[in-house]
Design a protein that fits this description.
This protein is α/β, with parallel strands linked by helices and 418 residues long. It is 61% helix and 12% strand. Helix 1 runs parallel beside helix 9.
C-alpha cells in the first residue's frame, strides 16, 4: 500500500510542477515521500499551555533538555528523533545551524525567543533513546490558549503534520472549550490520539477517579467516541509513565504501516484539494476586470487597516488592564489563603483542647491527618483556583484578538468569492 501511495504522490507532483502556483503543496508532498522512505511516524504532544507537555517529553528522554517553567515556555516546534546526539536549528530563511543541546533554550523558550522573533521554523534534536527507535519522532509543541497567539497558531498548524497525537490534560483544570476545539482539529488529521492526564500526584485517588470519569464523559460526548482510554501520569514523579510509554510504543510499532497509510492518504487528499483551490482562485482572479481587482484590493486594505487599529486598541487595553486584573487575582488568592490559615488555626486549637489529656504520641496521631491530608487538599484547591483564574483571564484576552482575525479571514474569502 505504501508503494502505491508513493506512486500517487510522484504523479501528483508531476502534474503540479507544470504550474508555479503550488510550490508549497509540492514541497509538502516531497516531504511525505521522504517520510515514507524512512517509514517515520510523527507523534505530536499537544495540549493547552501549562499542562506539562515539555516536562513529559523530558521524562521520555530521561533528560532535562526542554525548558519548563510556571509561565508559557515553548515557542517553536521541537522534534526529537533517534540518532547520535545533535541539535539543529532551522530558520524560516532556510538557514540551518548546528548548536549544542545545552544552548537550545535560546531558540525554543518563550523567554529567550519571544513570539519567535528569531524566526525559527523548527528545532531538530537527535538522541539515542529507546522510545525513539523504530523511526518514531516525538514533537513538543507550544501550548495553546495563552496570551502568546503565535504559540497557538504554531500548535494548530502542526497538527496536520502528525500521524499520531498524545493529548495532555491536567488534573488542576477542567476540560475547556479551547481544548475541545484543539481535539476536534486533531481528530481530523491524526490516525490515533492517546489521552494522558498529568499531575496525578497532586490529588487524592478519590478525586483522581472523579476527574477521570468526568474526562471520559466530556471526551466521549465531544468527539463521538464509544470508549476513551486515559493514561494517568505524573511527568514530575514519573508515576504511570513506564506503563503508558510501553503501551504507546507497542501500538505504534504494531500498527506502523496502517497508521502511515491512513495518515499520508489523508494528507495527500488535503494537499490536492488545497492545490485545486489555489488554481481555482488564480483562474477566477485572472478573469476579473482590472478595475474590479483594484476595487477588491482597496476593500481588503481598508479591512486590514481597521484590523490594525482594533489590535492596537486591544493591546492598549491589555496594557492598562492586565496589571489591575493580575493584582485582583493575587489579592483574591491571598484572601483565600488567609481564610484557610484562620480555619486551620481554629481547627487545630479545637483539636488540641479536646485531646489535651492524651500523651504526645497519641496527640501526634490526632494531628497527623490534619496536615498530611486536609491541609494539603485545601492548598491544592487553592492552587487549582489560581490557575483557573489566570486561565480565564488569558483566554478572554486571546479570544478577542482571535475573533478579529477570524472576521478578516471570512471577509477575505467572501471578497474573492464575489
Amino acid at each position: 500500500m505504501l508503494s502505491s501511495l508513493r506512486k500517487l504522490l510522484c504523479r501528483s507532483i508531476d502534474l503540479l510542477e507544470s504550474s508555479s502556483l503550488c510550490k508549497a503543496q509540492i514541497d509538502d508532498m516531497e516531504e511525505l515521500i521522504v517520510r515514507m522512505s524512512k517509514e517515520e511516524l510523527i507523534v505530536a504532544v499537544i495540549g493547552q499551555f501549562k499542562r506539562g507537555k515539555s516536562t513529559f517529553v523530558n521524562t521520555i528522554l530521561d533528560s532535562n533538555i526542554l525548558p519548563v517553567g510556571i509561565i508559557p515556555i515553548t515557542s517553536v516546534i521541537t522534534k526529537i528523533s533517534y540518532g547520535s546526539e545533535l541539535a539543529k536549528v532551522k530558520f524560516t530563511s532556510g538557514e540551518e545551524r548546528i548548536t549544542p543541546i545545552s544552548s537550545l533554550y535560546k531558540y525554543i523558550s518563550e523567554k529567550e525567543n519571544k513570539e519567535n522573533k528569531k524566526n525559527v521554523e523548527s528545532v531538530d534534536i537527535f538522541l539515542e533513546r529507546e522510545f525513539l527507535d523504530k523511526n518514531i519522532t516525538i514533537v513538543d509543541t507550544p501550548g495553546v490558549g495563552s496570551i502568546n497567539k503565535n504559540n497557538t497558531d504554531v500548535a494548530y498548524s502542526y497538527i496536520s503534520n502528525s500521524d499520531a497525537i498524545i493529548f495532555m490534560l491536567s488534573v488542576d483544570s477542567p476540560i475547556n472549550e479551547i481544548e475541545i476545539d484543539l481535539l476536534k482539529q486533531a481528530k481530523k488529521y491524526s490516525s490515533k490520539i492517546f489521552f494522558a492526564v498529568n499531575k496525578i500526584d497532586t490529588i487524592s485517588d478519590e478525586k483522581l477517579s472523579e476527574y477521570l470519569d468526568y474526562c471520559k464523559r466530556v471526551l466521549s460526548d465531544a468527539l463521538g467516541l464509544n470508549h476513551v482510554k486515559i493514561y494517568s501520569i505524573s511527568a514530575t514523579s514519573k508515576a504511570g509513565i513506564d506503563n503508558m510509554l510501553y503501551e504507546v510504543k507497542q501500538f505504534l510499532v504494531k500498527n506502523k504501516e496502517s497508521l502511515l497509510v491512513e495518515s499520508i492518504k489523508d494528507k495527500l487528499i488535503r494537499l490536492i484539494n488545497d492545490s485545486i483551490s489555489q488554481l481555482n482562485l488564480f483562474i477566477n482572479t485572472s478573469r476579473l476586470p482590472l478595475d474590479c481587482i483594484i476595487e477588491k484590493e482597496s476593500l481588503l486594505k481598508e479591512k486590514f487597516d481597521s484590523l490594525n487599529e482594533r489590535v492596537e486598541e486591544s493591546l492598549l487595553i491589555l496594557e492598562k488592564t492586565s496589571e489591575k486584573e493580575l493584582n485582583k487575582i493575587t489579592k483574591s488568592l491571598i484572601d483565600d489563603a488567609d481564610k484557610i490559615k484562620a480555619e486551620f488555626i481554629r481547627h487545630i486549637n479545637e483539636l488540641y483542647n479536646n485531646n489535651v489529656s492524651l500523651d504526645t504520641k497519641l496527640l501526634v496521631t490526632k494531628f497527623s491527618p490534619v496536615f498530611s491530608t486536609e491541609l494539603i487538599d485545601r492548598l491544592h484547591e487553592l492552587d487549582a483556583s489560581g490557575i483557573a483564574k489566570l486561565d480565564s483571564f488569558y483566554t478572554g484576552l486571546t479570544d478577542n484578538i482571535i475573533t478579529q482575525l477570524s472576521e478578516v479571514e471570512l471577509y477575505t474569502a467572501k471578497i474573492f468569492e464575489e
